[in-house]
TrEMBL record:
Official protein name in the record: RidA family protein
InterPro entries per UniProt: Endoribo_LPSP/chorism_mut-like, RutC-like_sf
Domain Endoribonuclease L-PSP/chorismate mutase-like residue range list: 7-148
Pfam family, one: YjgF_endoribonc
PANTHER family the UniProt entry points to: ENDORIBONUCLEASE L-PSP_CHORISMATE MUTASE-LIKE DOMAIN-CONTAINING PROTEIN (PTHR43760:SF1), ENDORIBONUCLEASE-RELATED (PTHR43760)
Organism expressing this protein natively: Hoeflea algicola
Record-linked Gene3D superfamilies: RutC-like
């Protein structure tokens, strides 16, 4: 499966970055039994946030959806680090948790988090089909517009 995951990443011109270090007192991932818990990933690229502010005020859905996709790329980078570089150990993405910083009247969080869901399903195939939450929140760390975490079953 690693070759097919890598070929899907290559087809999208996606190079997984080095896994980001935590920004506070937590671990970027934890393995417990056959589950890999990946801490919330922000839309960071080359160490900088790509989307900040609130949906419904500062950003549109399309921009935030791309930010959620970047969060998913960063989830895969953390998974690769956790699994010693072997993404073939992924059995299934069990659940994604999506958080969208948004104005109280904004109700399209589910569309924003589709950016992460679509990328994970595209890159991992059936193993990427997952349960999910898409939650609106008043703010996120560092003024990020989106944050996504994951629970992944591994071998």
């Amino acid at each position: 499966m690693t070759d097919s995951i890598q070929s899907r990443l290559d087809a999208r011109n996606i190079v997984l970055p080095e896994a980001a270090a935590p920004a506070a007192n937590y671990l970027p991932y934890v393995i417990s039994g056959s589950l890999l818990f990946v801490s919330g990933q922000l839309p960071l690229k080359n160490g900088a946030l790509t989307a900040t502010g609130l949906l419904g005020r500062d950003l549109d859905v399309a921009t935030a959806e791309k930010a959620a996709e970047l969060c998913a790329i960063n989830i895969l980078a953390q998974a690769k680090a956790a699994l010693g570089g072997d993404l073939d150990r992924i059995v299934r993405v069990v659940k994604l948790g999506g958080f969208v910083a948004s104005e109280p009247s904004f109700t399209d969080q589910h569309l924003v988090i589709n950016g992460a869901s679509n990328l994970i399903a595209e890159i991992l195939g059936d193993a990427g089909k997952h349960a999910r939450a898409a939650v609106g929140t008043a703010s996120l760390p560092l003024n990020a517009a989106v944050e996504v975490d994951a629970i992944i079953e591994i071998r």
